[in-house]
Every structure is written in C-alpha cells, then in structure tokens.
Amino acid sequence: MFFTKSPFMGLLLCSFLATISAEVGKLVCFYDTPRLVPQSPAPITLTELEPALNFCNFLVYGYAGIDPENFKITSFDLPSGNHINDLRKKFPHVRFLLSVGGDRDINGEGVPDTDKYLNLLEQPERRSNFRASVMAELNRLGFDGIDLAWQFPKNKPKLQQGILKRAWGKFRGWFGSTSVDEKAPEHKEQFAALMGELRSDVHRADKLLSLTMLPHVSAELFIDIPTVLMYADFVNLATYDFQTPERDPKVADLPAPLQAMYERDPSHNVQYQVEHWLNATAERNFDKLNIGVTSYGLAWVMTRNSGITGYPPIPEADGPALAGTTTGILSWPEICELLQQQPKDRETPHLRKVGDPTKKFGVYAYRAADDKGENGLWVGYEDPTTAANKAAFARAHGLGGVAFHDLTMDDVRGQCAGEKFPILRSIKYKL
Questions:
Q1: Fewer Cβ close by (within 10 Å): the C or N end of the chain?
Q2: Is the distance from CB of 204 to CB of 132 less than 8 angstroms?
C-alpha cells in the first residue's frame, strides 16, 4: 500500500478510515438484572449503572425466557418501556437490546432448560409464535432489538490430559462419539432459519438482531456460521469461562487465556475461537465479531495436595470456593479486597497476585492451604490491565469490539480504588 500527497486521495483515505472506525471499536455491555452487589442486600439499580452508559454503544438486558407451552417470549425482571425511553433520551448513542436465554431460563431442577429451546426450533409454527411475541415485547418495552443467547446443550467437560491421552482421544473419536444432541444437524439448520425469519421481522421494524454464544456451546454443532453472520448485526463470542469450578472442580486453571497454553485444550483461548469463526466463512466478517470479556473471576479451593506455588493448572482442587454472590464466582470488587487484605485485618493472609508479562494468558492470585489444610484459594480473573489487552487484540485484528459481561460485577460503586467501572473504562480507552 502506498500513500499520495493528493488532496483528493487524502479525502478518500479519511472517508475510508471513518467508515472503518464506525464499524469497529464497539462496546456491547451486558446487564444481568438478577445480580446483586457483592456483600450487599441491595440490588444494583439502573440509576447506578447510568455512568457506565457513557462508555457503551449497546446495552443488552438479560434475561427473558421462553414459555414451554406456547413458545412465546416471557419477560422476567425487566424495566418498563418508560424507563428505556428515559435512558434513550439521556444516552442517544446507546442502542438497547433484550436478550433471551443466557443460561438464566432454568427448569425445575435449577439447571438451564435446553429442551424447550430445541423444541421451539423444530416446528415453523412454534418459531412463528416466538417471533410474533418477540416483536410485541420489543415494542411494548421500547427495546431497539433482540439478542439470542440461545440455550443449546453444552459440551461435556474434558479431563485434564497430556498430549498422548488427547491424541488417543481424538483418534478414538474418529470412530464415533456420544453427541450432546443427536439431532444437532437438524437444529443447526432450523436455528439458521429462525435467524433469517427474525432478521426480516426486526429489520422491517428498524430494529437489531444479535447472537450471543454461551460458554461451552459448540458452534460447529449448532451454528451455520456463514448464514448466521449474514443475518446477525453482530455476534458476541463467549471467549471466557473455558475452565470453571463447576465444570472442572478438581483442576483450577486460567479461565480465559488470550492465546493457546501448553498442554491445554487448543480451543480454550480467545484467538482460536475468533479464528474458528472467521475461517468458517469466505466473507471474513471481522467487524461483526465481538470478543467476550468478563468483570469477574473464578475461584477454586486449594488443598494441601494442590502445591504451594499457585502455578496453574492446580491439581487436586476441592471445587468452587464458597464466596461471592454465586458459588465460585467473585466480582472485581471482591477480588480487589482479597488482594489488598492484610493479615492484621483478618486471620487469613491476602492473596498473592501473579501477573502476566507476556500479555497472552491472564493473571491469577492464590493463597496456599495452611498447615491444617484450610484457607486455600486460587482465583483466575480479569483486571483492568488484562481486559485492556483483550480490547487491544480486538482492535488490532479489526474485530467489531468487545462484549462486556457484565456491568454489575465491575466496581459499580468505586469500592476498590475510588473509580467507578475501572474494567469497563480500560476496555473503552483501548477500543
């Protein structure tokens, strides 16, 4: 590529760069309404979240569900249409989307209900009921679009394995394996059809359609990537929670590395997930892909057999740490407090932070188990620096931007360093 001093060519170049900048650098913010402020009985209010909207291009409300009887959308704890309209007047640059699913639509056993999401896909009349209810709900509440965080069945957890075991497992897999969904090819085609049908509905009403991939859902099994990218205004990739205390209770590890780590599943990193989507289509829709970045950490209990160095992967962990608003999940303010806590403040010492000078894998903090085998803790997490590194990755690769999960787990009240939303700010400044 060469440059010229011609004023005309300069104008063309400026126009081209302006077009590119409008397509990339997006910040999609998620607001999970049931979340509570850590160590506080008071829910985080929309008023408290308003300062964050100065940084967001989109605000995605979660989550609505699906009625298994009529397959219509059902709203849970969502704001009124007047509230959305009031926010739109204050923040005219923000588009407000309603998200469906998100692993929050649970069954009687308290686990995400995937059956009704698959059943809905299988019959055109069910899809039609869903679509009609979506448009009615968007109009009633004043949303600018719909986000599908579809609850497909998740991949089964894999045990930590060496190279030889993984190679044997792959060889054995060539001769048949147990799928999480025997009708996956049909559901893949039906979901693409739903996306196409919804696109016609929402675009006719000048609204948006986005897709959010949930962690551990196989795009290869369920997503016709070229078709979905054609229909969606943007796609949020779940490039996080690759290793979790719930799925991997005995092995603690970095939950969201940017690049592949030695002796790990090669797909468990941001770069692989992005390349998988881009390589699946000739269009190379870079600007439609947003990488997921979290505002929380995942915590395991370290035992005496986990060692004392904290270097991951941590063997013989004892499941999720019993802390935070959800077992095994710690918000950024909670992690910040644990890092700053001194022995004189409490009986147990503060966590030791281990940074990542390579900017490839992520940071963690730990406290080895004591002589009694107690107080062991290991946390893999995002902080403002690692989140900024991922935003820089998105920008350097011409991706659409970052999907931030979620506003309520950032430092909403400035408890840590006096600055509100430090992780969100670090992402926006890099974008």
A1: N
A2: no
